[in-house]
Records
---
Amino acid sequence: MRRRDLMLFLPAALSLAAWREQKASATDGELSGERAFQRTLPRSSDPLWVKLRQCKVRYNAKTALYSLTPTDEVKALIGQTLKVRGFIIPLDGLDLTKHFLIGINTPVCLFHPPGEPNEVIEVRSLKAVAWNDKPLTIEGQFKLISNPEMGVFFSMTNAKPVKA
């Protein structure tokens, strides 16, 4: 994906409208088709994703808000320095980024998020990280956050890329 394509991807993928569209289009098969295609692409096998995906996600159609119920195992990770391998989605539209999402899935669509709320982590890096479409390992302090509009509930701060 080229930088100009990424610039188009970010506002749409991370907007509240895109999250709402994700739920609405699930009934017509659009999103399910994208998810099926996404499963044919590389996916991170990092064990942290297994733990995070066990957290229960709910969507309230009336309020258009997400909620997450973390497991005790995930609560025990709060404040720890963790490593996770995944795919980067910059939030600032730059090729060198300090603020991004890292997710389990290879991003595939300009208009839908790269996974469910328990499959992405917001990252604030100490150093700028070069964006590309290859998986990257990030280390940082794990936190729970609450962004029900965007469906983001995990965070890593003071993060840095590390060798896998």
---
Amino acid sequence: MQKAAFLLYAVAVYVVFLATFLYLVGFVGGFAGLPLTVDQGPRSPLAVALTFDIALIALFGAQHSIMARQGFKRKWTRIVPPAIERSTYVLFASLALITLFLCWRPIGAVLWEISSPAGKALIWGLFAAGWVIVLTSTFLIDHFELFGLRQAWQHARGSRPAAPRLRQPLFYKVVRHPLYSGFFLAFWATPRMTVGHLVLALGLSVYMLIAITYEERDLVNLFGADYEGYRGRTGKLFPRIHKR
């Protein structure tokens, strides 16, 4: 009964994540028809809007960084069973994003806008490419493990998870963090950059650069010299032209 409940929980969390991820694409892209986007929503004075938006980005970043650390996980799994630890992390991450959607305060001053049809098409193509890179990268490193489904499924079957391996499929052969590269592209590729969009893109970019530092520290602790060698051969977010 417990195994079935854990699996059902993991599936439900995955559905919440998927809906949140799809809304994030529309939120960042400012898609028409959505009630809340980076440029559409309740307005506030500039100082209030900046305070709200920076606090929301900080909340999202803190949740991601703290809950992803190995020290936190060791303590957390005394409360949350390991089979659903990852799903619970994904749930909290989704809730942090939903909070950002609901409480975001747009700042509409336009910094730049591309008016030519060819220019807009190019930028939207880069925006779409960013999200494709993000999604593809999750499947390259095991999408279902990343979002907690595999752990619950293995628990339901009574099987043990395989030992972690350092793999470099496709994008990972030339870039250590293609998932973050995709997010950078998606957040910054917009034909109409408002102050609010800039705050979102800049805030999340700073968070990702900080997160990469901690993530690489964990990977060095896990894989040792193998990861050090991999880091020496490949770029962090963009392909390295000259190898060390």
---
Amino acid sequence: MSAAKVDANKDIEKLSFEEALAQLEKIVGQLESGEAPLETSIELYERGTALKAHCEARLKAAEAKVEKITLSASGEPAGTSPLDID
């Protein structure tokens, strides 16, 4: 990937999950339309790949933060423990 393309995708790191997902959905729509020239389609695909990776990383980070409520023997909330997602 050229330095210009890396710089063009550097802004992705600053996007929220929702912003990145919205951009990814827009790119998918553009690619599905088939109206973009080949070079533009390649650039869109590369950005879409970077956006997808960013969204996956944001989701993984969010999952790591999720905790489940633990209950005592009497059924009362007793605290939290990390969510076991495996």
